[in-house]
Design brief:
Belongs to the class I-like SAM-binding methyltransferase superfamily. Cation-dependent O-methyltransferase family. It comes from Triticum urartu. With 197 residues, this protein is α/β, with parallel strands linked by helices. It is built from seven helices and four strands; from the N terminus they run βαααααβαβαβ. Strands 1-2-3-4 form a four-stranded parallel β-sheet, with helices on one face. Bound molecules: S-adenosylmethionine (SAM).
Amino acid sequence: MRRWAVSPSLPPAAFASATLGLGVGPPQARTLASAATPPPLGHCSPPCPRRPRRRRSLCSSSSSAASAATTALAVEEARRGRKQLGMDPPLYDYLLSNVREHPVLRDLREETASMWGSQMQVSPAQAQLLAMLVQILGAERCIEVGVYTGYSSLAVALALPESGRLVACERDERCLEVAKRYYQLAGVAHKILFLPA
Ligand SMILES: C[S@@+](CC[C@H](N)C(=O)[O-])C[C@H]1O[C@@H](n2cnc3c(N)ncnc32)[C@H](O)[C@@H]1O
């Protein structure tokens, strides 16, 4: 029986817990089941009281300066591979100092840091966890729904054996172009099949 692993495209903060929470199928199948979907919004019981909306000024110079500073900080943090995931800074620094990141993954992360949506990218630690799961399961067939610029799919492809295949689904052609470039650079392009083709 074929072995499949699913890489969920969830926001990074949810990614590790969703990955860890995946059910492991029957021993023969060694299936890493599909991603848990986030709970639907607005379905609290009893219903949550509505919070008053804060007005935001889009034209105040102080707010735009603050927002530019926040963006610059976020880009720098992403470039350094930082995504706190609710950890104390010392603990997170310890974690990062022990993450092994392939040089092509590092280059991809650095290029993606200044791109729109870079906060969607999984962290180096999350990618390493995913690669480790592929190795532990001995997965040979994986699917990623939502590739973005390819960070997690590249980590998975690097962990797959030569005969392994990853089906990569992404609707944004520009993101996919970046991903394809890095699959080539890392020498794993032959392991990737694209959907839509
Ligand atoms: C959270 S990001 C994936 C991040 C990626 N795992 C990484 O580590 O860089 C989600 C991606 O899913 C893609 N996406 C969303 N809906 C999709 C759909 N219906 N079909 C294909 N791709 C989709 C978006 O374009 C986006 O690039």
